[in-house]
Design goal:
Number of strands: 12
Number of helices: 11
Helix content: 25-40%
Largest sheet: 5 strands, antiparallel
Shape: globular
Radius of gyration: 18 Å
Low-confidence stretches: none
CATH architecture of one domain: 2-Layer Sandwich
Strand content: 15-25%
CATH topology of one domain: Enolase-like, domain 1
Length: 263
């Protein structure tokens, strides 16, 4: 690692002030950032630890589930309230990495990083969640702007994510056998306002909605409704773990499994 200063502010205002330095970097769970530091791929002037800002916790109302940005994946996965309100979200959190990752990684850190193979972006987009920051609220459809790119401004901090409670939800993913990231992950959400399907892991630009699946499932919410619908391989990831055509096929397989689980 390169030398850097370390700060652990006790308020959001102090954290934002420290992050005004363009060379400063925020530290949430550190599951991506610390390996980047070890590989000397980033040279921050100061690392701002967000651990004392009081941004963890889950609040459930009759219509929403709000999760603090520093809440770990493991906390979400084991929350009885989340399991009851949005079971697909709890299930997704339980599939992330392994126990070590789930008890250090945070929802806010995952969304701010926007790794194209991360799981949470699929839930946020499919559930039409709202990302709350120290400055504003950002709709999921406006938040994700491409690989490792979001609508967050420099120094802006995610404080919480608000999920509307839906009628049905489920997430299925095809894991990379070594790292368990999503080679393809599909989140399906059915609510009174409509049907949304989000795909992660497959797209070169990150998470995206599958409108053809949404239209078919709006008419008939069953795995059979997806028969005959193909996903173009153009724009999908292709690497040593799977070609674009393979990922296109997996999207259909994972989507049917998610619909079956939700139904």
């Amino acid at each position: 690692m390169y030398d850097f200063a370390y700060q652990k502010p006790a308020s959001i205002a102090d954290a934002v002030k420290l992050l005004a330095d363009p060379e400063a970097k925020a530290l949430a769970g550190g599951q991506t950032f610390i390996p980047v530091l070890k590989q000397r791929l980033n040279k921050p002037s100061v690392v701002v630890d967000l651990g004392k800002l009081g941004l963890s916790g889950i609040t459930v109302t009759a219509s929403t589930v709000t999760i603090g940005a520093m809440t770990t994946h493991g906390t979400v996965a084991h929350s009885a309230e989340v399991k009851k309100a949005i079971p697909g979200l709890a299930n997704l959190a339980g599939m992330i990495g392994d126990n070590a990752v789930r008890y250090r990684g945070t929802i806010g850190g995952s969304l701010a990083n926007n790794d194209p193979t991360a799981c949470y972006p699929a839930a946020v987009l499919a559930l039409a969640a709202t990302i709350k920051t120290d400055k504003r609220s950002i709709a999921a459809d406006d938040f994700f702007q491409g690989m490792f790119t979001t609508a967050l401004e420099p120094g802006e901090l995610i404080t919480a994510v608000e999920f509307p409670i839906v009628e049905k939800s489920a997430y299925e993913k095809f894991r990379n056998p070594a790292s368990r990231y999503a080679m393809v992950g599909v989140f399906v959400a059915k609510s009174a306002s409509g049907l949304r399907v989000a795909i992660t892991g497959a797209g070169q630009g990150g998470v995206f909605r599958h409108t053809a699946f949404e239209q078919a499932l709006s008419a008939n919410f069953s795995p059979a409704a997806l028969d005959g619908i193909t996903t173009p391989a153009d724009g999908l990831n292709s690497d040593i773990h799977g070609s674009a055509a393979y990922r296109a096929h997996l999207i259909g397989v994972m989507a049917k499994r998610a619909v079956a689980a939700a139904a």
